Each structure stands twice: as structure tokens, then as C-alpha cells.
Amino acid sequence: MSFKIMKIVMLGHSGVGKTTYMASLYAVLQQSVQGFTLKTTVNDDHKRLIELAENIRQGNYPLGTDQRKDYDFYLRYQGENVLKFSWSDYRGRALTETQDSEQANLLLQDLKQADGIMIFCDSFLLNQGKVRNSQIGRMISLINHNLKELDHPLSISILLTKFDLLENIPTQFVKPFEGLITTISCSNNILGGFIPVGCGVKQINIPIPLLFILNTAVSNHYHFTQKLLVKHKLEAEEFAKNSQGFGGNINWIVSKITGEESNHEKAINAKAKAELHKKEWEFIKAPCESLERYIKKIPVIKSNMTIDKYTEEILAIKNSIISQRIENLDPFAVFD
């Protein structure tokens, strides 16, 4: 497979649950969720995340991240590697540190190169109106600044953590995200959505934010490979056609004199490339269709939606929440 390594960046204030989410997600995706699993490229990372996840399930939560930590994962489908991605976990203070800080500089660089961004927001603080405490304004400012020169597809998952602790949701629940909503809805390169999660003893919607983001890379690769397949198939047919008859014989003779490829040889090479892309396209087809089928169920940010409508959709999710335990069959059932 010729996938570009996808880069994912997590943003959130200290204590919002970034490390908790990553460990919980990794543990959940050790067993198949709609055919998808996760695998680390480093065995020590596997051991650490599994240990953290087990502690979380017992109610013991990890301390905040002290330094930027990078993890490399494989998204797997039916036991086969589909996509390799890098995931950067930053300490919460990196959001408020000056540009003289090494961590802050690394964060800015990573945001410019990111293919996916996970924004972690404490639902409990948000519900209490403590927007400043949750650093939402700072996160949105950083993201909007780096999106000005965006030249590649980007997916943004807005994770509403500790969602299971909420009893009521005010109509202006997502009002602090208004600037980011505008940016996303006006861009052809950005896909974003609000996804409530819970990463404690009671786990809610754990796999969805990651699969939402990875869908962009998988889908793009699927469609790009499909275009290459069609392109080389048509080239092979055209070269084969031009290798026939009197003109084809002349071309063959000239190629032997000049050392250039004949149309017959070009047809063979183009057909070989088409076959290669066909195998790649067939390999990615099933996971792509699986992801796209479920992505339609997620309430994404759209240009024609009001703040109240987003809150309404989030409230509908709250009213039909299903705990995401490993044995659950369909983690997307909450969006039905």
C-alpha cells in the first residue's frame, strides 16, 4: 500500500481527558468494531496503553501529559493494515505557552501539517459556562490561524468529553464554537462534527471520533486509486490499439532503432500498472465503504445549520446514548 502517513493532533486543556481517551480507544479497538482494529507499531506503546486502559476501567485515571508524545498506529480492517497514522498527544499547557516554548512551537508546526485534529472540550465546564477554563477560545484561534493556508483535506472531531455527567444541555451549548463552525462550513477542504464521548468506567462512543477522522484519508485514497486504475486501463487500451496493423509494425521497427518503448510495450506496462491499482482499489474498497456508510450517521457541521440545531442534535444523541463497551455490536447505533 502507498498510503501517506496521516498525522493527527489532539488539543485540549490539562485534565480534559486526552490521554484517557487514547488509552480507552486503543483498548476498545483491540477487538473488532465493524471490522476495524488498532495496532501500535511499538510494542512498549501497546503495553502502556493497555495498562492505562485497564486502570481507567477500574476508576484510576492517568496524570496529565508532561511532554509531547507521539504514537504510531495502524488502522486495520479484517486483520489487514489499511492505514498508518501518527498521533501527537500534547500537554495541556502547550495551548497557553508563548512561542518561545519548544512545546508551543511544535504544536504550531504540527497543526499546519495535520490531516486530522481532535479538539477535546470538557462538557461539564462547557455546560456551566466556564468557557475560559476549557481553553476553547485559544484552541479555535490556533486552528483558524493555521487554516488560512490549508491546501489539503482536513477532518476535525470536536469531542465533548465527560458527556455522561450532564443532566441538562442549554440551547446555546455550542455557542463558543461559532467561529470554528463558520470556518468549517465555508471550506471545501474541511469536514467537522460534534461527537459526545465518555471515557470513564462507563464508556460512550469511544471509536467514533477517530474513525470519523480516518475516513478522510481512506476515502481519498480509494478515489485516487480508482482514478489511477481508470487512467492506466484506458492508456493500455489506447497503446494496444496503436500497436496493431501497419502503423503498429512501423512503430515497433522504429522503437528497435531508437531504443524507445514501442506501443506494444507501453500497453503491457500500462496494463501492469492498471492491475496493480486494481488490487489496491479492491483492497481499500470494503473499509472505505464501511467507514463512509457510518460517517453519514454523524451530525457533521453544515453551512445551513443554526447553533440551536447543533444543540438539538447533540441533545438527541444524549437521549439515546448507548454505553460503548467492547462487546457492543454497533458503536454507531446512537446516531440512528
UniProtKB/TrEMBL annotation:
Coiled coil: none annotated. InterPro entries: DO-GTPase1, P-loop_NTPase. Residues 9-121 form the Double-GTPase domain. Gene3D superfamilies: P-loop containing nucleotide triphosphate hydrolases. This is Double-GTPase 1 domain-containing protein. It comes from Cyanobacterium aponinum 0216.
